[in-house]
Amino acid sequence: xxxxxxxxxxxxxxxxxxxxxxxxxxxxxxxxxxxxxxxxxxxxxxxxxxxxxxxxxxxxxxxxxxxxxxxx
Length: 72
Known about the structure:
Recoverin, domain 1; 5 helices; globular; 61% helix; mainly alpha; 72 residues
């Protein structure tokens, strides 16, 4: 139970960081999407599950709409 609560807390912190971040700030290669690596660099506490859940089309990248949902 403690592990679940700790994972939830980390995910919530990552979501808060995502809300504060703009896609253009996180998209370091300028391709218009955010990779897992870019997301982790900007939000080190973000859980892989949070990224995967936001990646609605499953392409391994977050477009602007998916990135916005990461913060919801």
